[in-house]
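Hi R.,

As promised on Friday, here is the backbone we talked about, encoded as structure tokens. Could you run it through your design pipeline when you get a chance and send me back a sequence?
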């Protein structure tokens, strides 16, 4: 089983640590593309900061993020699961996973990244700012770069297992599963008989689902088996083909 997570806009910068070593990251087939995206991003942010900010879609009061990107090759790194923050990652709470669950996360979880394509939780990376819908000068849309690269890498990582695709809309455009068994999860908040998608419930519940699967050690190979595993773990789940609807009433 491979669980694909979205990244987060918010990231925690390491205070100390080794600088970035692309060759040390998992999924080495992505290294050449990682080099290209990194070069384009650093070059942009070493230039006019106002131009860089506009290209990156950030405000003029956030020029510190431009400076952050300009220093990516020298910046300290830490585990990716410590860099990414936000509702999903707070709910996943990697730091408090059991030793066995953390070990499972190293091979069963991958995080989608505009800069690195995919990273494993234990990969050491710096904090950066690069959204999935950005077009970099001299490179083009970062989504198009990864669309050409991720297919073979993800397919090999999934093998005969199930791809559990928890990516958000922007990052779904990086690559769409072809030739692998896959399942997506939609979280519906039910209140007074009305169901709707609510971002906070969606992210928090997905984080809890990943945490529970890692702690349980289940390795479902089909969407139906994944639904059964989640029901065993206490969720209300409805199956519609490859999509699972997880229905929650509160956090």
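Update: got your reply. Pasting your designed sequence below so it's all in one thread:
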């Amino acid at each position: 089983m491979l669980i694909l997570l979205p990244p987060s806009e918010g990231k925690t910068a390491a205070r100390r640590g080794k600088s970035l070593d692309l060759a040390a990251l998992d999924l080495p087939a992505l290294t050449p593309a990682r080099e290209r995206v990194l070069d384009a991003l650093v070059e942009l942010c070493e230039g006019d900061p106002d131009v860089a900010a506009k290209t990156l879609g950030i405000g003029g009061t956030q020029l510190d993020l431009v400076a952050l990107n300009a220093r990516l090759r020298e910046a300290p790194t830490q585990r990716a699961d410590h860099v990414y923050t936000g509702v999903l990652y707070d709910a996943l709470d990697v730091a408090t996973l059991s030793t066995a669950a953390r070990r499972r996360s190293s091979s069963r979880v991958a995080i989608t990244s505009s800069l690195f394509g995919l990273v494993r939780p234990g990969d050491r990376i710096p904090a950066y700012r690069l959204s999935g819908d950005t077009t970099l000068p001299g490179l083009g849309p970062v989504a198009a770069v990864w669309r050409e690269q991720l297919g073979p890498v993800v397919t090999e990582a999934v093998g005969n297992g199930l791809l559990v695709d928890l990516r958000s809309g922007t990052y779904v455009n990086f690559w769409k599963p072809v030739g692998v068994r896959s399942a997506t999860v939609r979280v519906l908040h039910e209140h007074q008989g009305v169901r709707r998608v609510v971002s906070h419930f969606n992210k928090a519940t997905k984080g809890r689902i990943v945490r529970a699967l890692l702690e349980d050690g289940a390795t479902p190979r089909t969407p139906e088996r994944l639904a059964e595993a989640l029901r065993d773990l206490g969720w209300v789940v409805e199956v519609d083909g490859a999509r699972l609807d997880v229905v929650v009433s509160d956090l």
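One thing I noticed while checking it: The chain has a mean pLDDT of 95.

Thanks again,
M.
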